[in-house]
Design goal:
- The chain has 191 residues and is of the alpha+beta class.
- The protein is 20% helix and 19% strand.
- It is built from five helices and ten strands.
- The strands form two sheets. It has a six-stranded antiparallel beta sheet with strand order 5-10-6-7-8-9. A four-stranded mixed beta sheet has the order 1-2-4-3, covered by helices on one side.
- 42% of the residues are buried.
- The N terminus is likely disordered.
Length: 191
């Protein structure tokens, strides 16, 4: 893990004072490894950062990771960007991370795997027992027996259109947080 942090150290901008989202060079983008394996060279648009500690929803529907966040948080956002706009498929992402579409827990699993937080996909019921109880500082999975979504650095990644004025289904960064009533909050230790 230390070698990975050294390798990826160049991927975090040195200056957090830039006002606009920054796209890393393609050479750096090709070095980004997520989920303990290369998912191929990410799109340069997938690895954008913004200053501070909160992710930012971009006009193209993707998210820019906060430069002040831990690398795992940035990687979760960058991984999720790869599946934004894919179709909702019931059970999608349950058998394998790379799928033709994703359901709620498949979407959450994909993002967490991208940060090397989990190594196997989980369903919403399994997420109810995963990690530690309560909200995390950076990543919180909200889950109940029938649905799961995740809030990463202040942005909600969800397949449900709840609270989204556009109403799109499938993996999307949602501009508004939804009520978490009826959901258990879970998080990975340290995040």
């Amino acid at each position: 893990m230390c070698m990975l942090a050294i390798l990826l150290g160049a991927a975090v901008p040195a200056s957090a004072g830039a006002a606009k989202a920054q796209t890393h060079s393609s050479a750096v983008a090709e070095q980004v490894i997520v989920g303990g394996q290369a998912f191929g060279a990410p799109n340069a648009a997938d690895v954008q950062t913004v200053p501070g500690t909160r992710a930012k929803l971009l006009a193209n529907g993707q998210a820019a990771a906060p430069a002040g966040a831990p690398l795992e948080v940035q990687q979760a956002i960058w991984a999720a960007n790869r599946i934004i706009g894919m179709p909702y498929v019931y059970g999608g992402g349950h058998q394998r991370f790379d799928d033709d579409g994703y359901d709620c827990s498949g979407t959450v699993s994909y993002a967490l795997h991208g940060a090397s937080i989990i190594d196997t996909p989980m369903d919403s019921g399994t997420f109810m027992r995963w990690g530690a109880a309560g909200r995390g500082d950076w990543i919180t999975v909200y889950t109940n027996p029938g649905h799961a979504y995740v809030v990463i650095a202040g942005l909600r990644l969800d397949t449900s259109a709840a609270g989204d004025p556009r109403g799109g289904k499938g993996p999307r960064w949602r501009p508004n947080l939804r009520s978490n009533r009826g959901f258990r909050a879970r998080h990975a230790d340290g995040l």
